[in-house]
Description:
Number of strands: 0
Shape: globular
Amino acid sequence: MFNNRIYPLLIIGLFAISTSPVIAKLLPYVPATVIAFWRMAIASGALWLYTSFFSYSPISPKNSRLVYLAGASLAMHFIFWFGALKLTSIANTTVLGIVAPAFTLLIEKLVYGKEINTLSAISLMIIFIGCIIVQGSDLGNFTGVGLGNIMAIVSAVFLGIVFLIGSRVRQNTGVLPYTKNLFTVSAIVLLFCSLLLDNSIVNYSIENYFWLFILGMVPTLIGHTIFSYSIKFVSPTIIASIPLGEPIIASILAFILFNERIYSNVVIGGVVIGIGLILLIRNNKN
Length: 286
């Protein structure tokens, strides 16, 4: 059941991750894979430094394999998510990126055989209808904004995988060793992807590195670590639903800082997605 003591932490985590798309928009000349790499490298480096002062139980071999998969999935999540931000708006990316709970439920059905009842099925249909509305005139367009919207949805699939794996591993693994190894594996995968795509990870401006540092510390070290901690106590579907407030916070910041417009189809689709997610959460509280 949902632990009420986790609420304050999740609120802090929500505000922390809501700064991510805004910071990423301040890095227009840094490739998506490089942004993702430095985000993970900085956060994992900080955790390695912090944990060097403590002793803790190592991750079991079985859980280590799961962490490798989660780390690779987190890397893919960030590649698609930052890639989406390069092509579409903050509002579109965050609205479509919050549908991870729908994918956690679908993956639980496919992998673990979890039963999807009628209300959950209806909720999933509502969520996907909302995604179609957000696409608007870009539906079926595989370039530009349309491609960015699709990438945002794909990023949510990988995030759903991360939450599901985290839910299993965290039952008998501490938050610090889990998060440290999760971020480290992700950083290694992202480094490989950056090199494969011939994207330089160095030779950027001091201002770029400043924002990359903030990206690694605030939304990652604070936001994602809070989610990794909380997932031991609540359903992965619930944790994946906390970013439901991110589009509101991030869109307001985007309007204030970048004068980024929020179109009616995004608002309507976002409301539809929100209704579907709320129904899904209420029906899957444990």
